[in-house]
Amino acid sequence: MAVGRVIGWIFWISLFVIGWIFFLAGLWVLVRDYKVLVDTGDWSPITLYGLWWELNQSSVDLVWAVAQLYIPRLWNPVIFPVLSWCWASAVLIVLGWVILRSSARGLTLRTASARNGPAGLSSRRGPASGLAASRAWSGPDSLRPSAPGGATSGQRSTVETPYIRMHLDHETLVSGRVVRGAFAGDRIEELDLAGLLAVRRECVAERDERGAQLIEKYLDGVTPDWRDELYRRRASAAPPASTADMTVEEAYAVLGLQPDADEAAVRKAHRRLIKQLHTDQGGTDYLASKINRARDVLLRQVAGQAR
Asked: What are phi and psi of 114, to 5 degrees?
């Protein structure tokens, strides 16, 4: 794992340096074109092909010969006209800017992961503050707000599912809150890894697939290694048994309630136990399914008694 992280740092830093090289090279070519304009009064920016020819004519001849031999139908009508038409300064500046932006995002993710990695996963503070998360996370098209689950106001928007409400700015996460379940009212950015995984389990159990996707994308942005940790915990957990045949007596025992417990007591006990299901305290998906099943059994029991 440590070697992989070092390689990741080296990759993103190298990409960042390459981006600056392209960007500065583009500025240098632009200054050169301007000097030609001042000297001659004619604006004739050098093209990619012209710059390549000036820098290394022999490599141009070699590539030309190989292209004519193997890809003449691609080189003559497509590649060569593009090289001969595109301004070298514009291409280098744009390419450098794109690489710089991508590498800056990668370095931001690495910084957030290093700051809130395995050593800090059990802390109460979440994987990243709102600002760090806003720079690290970008949702897919499927998570963009759409009526009636999302509302848009100017350049800010809200994505809402049965369990999760996320506030976004330019499709970038700003903040979020859990609206249902054991963590109702808690802010997403203030939950630790175990709490976020517990919310994700609730979303999956209650078939809130979009909410589970939001949590997963948030975790991808601030704690990229969270899936490895999840698989490790699942592998160490006992194989789950079926909970479909749970009796009312078993449900009372699971939640630690008396037979006269009402709906409020059932929900309170369920919330308390689910919050204790942080995997660093011994919780597993199996225990979560048992507690959720016990809640469902007792809520049906209470509803039947009220009729």
From this structure: -70, -35
Q: What's this model's pTM, rounded to 2 decimal places?
A: 0.37
Tell me how far apart the alpha carbons of residues 183 and 110 are, in angstroms, rounded to a whole number: 28
Residue with tokens 């029991």: 301
Give the fold, CATH level 3, of 248-306: Helix Hairpins (1.10.287)
Q: What is the DSSP code string of 30-47?
A: HHHHHHHHHHHS---PPB
Token representation of residue 164? 């999760």
Strand order in the sheet with 164-169: 150-153, 156-160, 164-169, 172-178
Q: Determine the Cα–Cα distance for residues 45 and 86; give it in Å rounded to an integer.
A: 9
Cα–Cα–Cα angle for 193, 198, 201, nearest 5°? Answer: 125
Task: Give the start-to-end residue ranges of the domains of the chain.
Answer: 2-115, 123-234, 248-306
Element (H, E) at 26: helix 2-40
> Mind listing the pLDDT tens digit for each residue in 164-175?
887 776 555 557
CA gap 255, 251 in Å, rounded: 6
Residue 126 burial (C-beta neighbours within 10 Å; 0-12, 13-18, 19+): buried
Positive or negative CA dihedral for 181, 183, 186, 190? negative
Give the pLDDT band (50/70/90) at residue 98. very high
Q: How far apart are CA 203 and CA 205, in angstroms?
A: 6
For 46-88, what is each residue's pLDDT tens digit? Answer: 888 888 888 888 887 888 888 888 888 887 788 888 888 888 8
Could you please report the per-residue DSSP string of 161-208?
Answer: -SSEEEEEETTEEEEEEE-SSTTTT-BGGG--HHHHHHHHHHHHHTT-
